[in-house]
Structure formats: structure tokens, C-alpha cells
Amino acid sequence: MSDTHLEIERTYDLPADAPLPDLVGAGGIMQTDTQEPFELDATYWDTQRYDLVAAHVTVRRRTGGHDAGWHIKRAESDTVRHEQHFPLTEDPDTVPVEVLAALFTERRGRGLRPVVRITTTRTVTRLLDEDGDQVGELADDQVVAERLDDDAPVDPNTWREVEVEAVEGVDPQIAHELFAALDGRFAAVGAGPAAVASKLARGLAGAPAPRLQTEEKPHKGTAARALTKRLRKLRSTLLRLEAGLRSGASTDLAETAATALGIAAVLGTYRPAFADGDEIDRAAAAADALAAVTARAALAEYLVDRLPHASSPAQEALIDSVTRERILASTRQRRDDAAREVLLSLHEESFLELLDALDDAVERPQPTAWALRDPKRVAQDVSAIEKPRIRDLVREAVGDDPADEAGDREATQRAWHATLRARMAMDVLGDDAFPHALWKRIGTAADVLTERVRSLHALEQLRVQAGIAERAGEGTFGYGVLAGDRVRVAEESYDEAVHALNRV
């Protein structure tokens, strides 16, 4: 079992022989209680590439103090961290399975190894208000850090730092007001906020860490700069949503699908912007696959809310409660099945390869000469390829003679996926690069096809449910009402799709 809490703290660099400042009267502190020093011994773990440090995550096994055990810290900012605790295990050389599972994405599926051992002599001072209630804790640390890699220096790194942590449960704004009040007191004794807030980062100084070796951003005004910026944002969003899915938290599946498709749009549509090699091609394919599976889940989630209901009060009155409940149960089951399929996809090797490719593209961009041009010139090349491709796919989706209903639905989905992806690709460079009229028409086609895909899937599910009801001897009138409503929407969206095709 593990427990998680929010840690709000600030770290100050203090000269080795400097006295602590008098904190009474600052930020509601009216009393202090200094305790006896004690020893902490922590071993920090990371991958061979230092994926955890690059993701602003630390994992350690620590003995000593009141919270001995395995700790995972995820930094939200320089002062705010989410800390997860696991029980101390007897074997110091093996990371517990629960810890590895909690770090699966950040470590990119790789194994962990010890990278730094940090021993600390800590003197704690409790910071109290006028009633004797604790408002914070000051830890005065004498630190010795020893790198454990093959190229580690002979002599360990030593320093002194002071951590001030707000009491658990305090409002973050109040905590930051406390830190602001303390800044002046520490400045008076020659101390200031630490240049490096993490003991691990300071202990790793000089380590050969591939993930920490970054390249300069591409120059402003180039397509490459816009692509790198968009991928950075998309990666951050994907990791946030993925963490929610893994934890079982309520996660916006539509946003997840849009994020995956946005990544596919950049890697696929702008493929000449990236160096030759299979890595980008595999990553683009993985992003497309993730977009497809999350789109199915998002569609299933949409139908949970919309399928049991008609578009008018008069039609709503014709649907009996049994029909509505059966439709609701069926759509919920489909949604849950689709969400599990998404979760399974996050454990596949292809997903980890996608994350690796995003890491390289964002942290170590190597743009090609094609991408280092003016965005308008790049947009011209993209338009020459995308425009006819979109026209062909939309024409197939609204053809006069669909082979069958399933074929119609699949063709519509292909066109829908392609137009959404094209719109997202165009958004990266903006309508300053692409003709505004084309950007708008592609967007209109995407919106129309979205509604058509939803209607076609709704019809499919209604017919399946009506067939089940009929075999069970139940009435099917309500299913017919809802199906008729969806047929009308599908026909309207078909006509709009034909019109959109003629304008693309």
C-alpha cells in the first residue's frame, strides 16, 4: 500500500558556518522548537538514460527519520511536489514491484539502477503560531552526495541547505505567503532560494545523462520552431491524461483522442521536418493507432449521454423507460470496454517508443533544412499533398454507391480521421501560413463528418439493441423513434458533407 500527499516547500542555500535567521514574527511564526539532529541515508534510482530526472520525478529508498521507506516525488513547480510513500523493504538492491508500476510511464518501461547516495545530517525546527500549532517545519541539512555511476568523481559533493515545508493541508497561497515572508529573513544572513531545489539534481552534477543533454530550440520564424513548440505542449497534455487513465481518475477521452491525433498530425503530416529513420515512422504509426483507439472510446462515451435521448420533447415522450434503460446499460458497457482497450494500449511497446520519440523531438530537436524554412513555404508543400488526399477520402465517404452499410461507416471514419488530422496539422502553423479559406473549409468538413460518424454508429447500436429486444419479445417502437431521429441527422450531415467536399 502507498499513501500520497502534497508537499509545499522552499529550499535555501546557506553558507556552512552561517547562523539560522530568527524567524519569529515572519508569516505567523511566533514560536520555534528545535529538536536533536538525526541521520538520513537515501539511495536515488533512475534509468540508464535518467528518464526520471528528465520527467521531474525522483524515486529513493530512505532510512532514518519518521518517514523511512520508498518515496516517489513528482514536481509540479519549484516549491510544490506530490509525494507518494511506499513501505521500506528489507532488500536495498531491488525496487519494489509497486514502485516500478507507479513509475511505468516516466521510466519509459526501462529498469532502474541506483544513481546517487545522499546522506544527510538533519536538524529540525518546528515553526509554531501563537497557539503552539505547527505552521511549518525547517530542516537544516548538512548533505553528502556520492554519485554511483562509473564516471563518478572520487570525492563526494557536500553542501548545506535549509528546507522550509508548510504543514500538510495548508492552502498553497498561504504557504507561498509564508515563504515570501521568510525570504527577507534568510537574505539577511546571506542565504537565498536555492539555485538547484533538488538534492538529487545537485548530487547528479556532471553525470553522463542522455535525457539531460538538450539542444537549442530552432530559430524563431521557422516551421521547425512551431512544430517543436506544439509537440512540447502535446507531450505534456498526453502525459497528464495518461496518468489520469492509469490511476482510474475521471479523464476526458475526447481530449485524449484529440491529443493523440494532434501528435499524429505533426509527426505524419510534417514528416520531412524530422531526420530520416524508422523511429519517427514508428512513432507516427503509434500515434495514429492511439488516436484510433481513443477516438472509439470517446465516441462510446458520447453515445452514453446522447443515444438514449431524442432531439425533441415530442419524440422523448414516445420512448419507454425499459428501452431507455437498456440502451443506457449497453452504451455504458461499450464505453467501459473501450476505456479498457485504451488502458491496454498504454502498456504496449509502441506507446513507449512514441514517448521516446517525443522526448527526442522536444528536448533534442534536429530539424531538417525543409523545416527551417518560412512556415508559408512549408504550408504550400503540405497543402499540395493534403488537399487532394482529403478530397479523395471525403469523396469516398459520400459516394453515391457505398458497398454496404459497414463499408460506408468505415469510409466515413477514414475521411473523418483525415480531416480532423489535417485541421490539426494546419493549426500548428496557423492561417497566417495556410490560406484562411482552406483552413476554414477543412474545419467545416471535419465538423460535418464528426456528426455523421456519430449518427452512423448510433444507428448501428440501435439496430443491434432493437434486434435483442425483438428476440426477447419486447417492444421495439422506442428504438425505431430514436433510429428515425438519427437517420434524419445522418442524412443532413451527408448533404453537408457533399457540400463541404465541393469546397475543399
Automatic annotation (TrEMBL):
Annotated protein name in UniProt: CYTH and CHAD domain-containing protein
Alphabetical list of SUPFAM superfamilies matching this protein: CYTH-like phosphatases
Coiled-coil spans in chain: none
Membrane spanning residue stretches: none
Domain CYTH as annotated: residue spans: 5-207
Entry-linked Pfam families: CYTH
Domain of life: Bacteria
Gene source species: Curtobacterium herbarum
CDD domains reported in the protein's UniProt record: CYTH-like_Pase
Lineage of the species this protein comes from: Bacteria, Bacillati, Actinomycetota, Actinomycetes, Micrococcales
InterPro entries assigned to the protein according to its UniProt record, in alphabetical order: CYTH-like_dom_sf, CYTH_domain
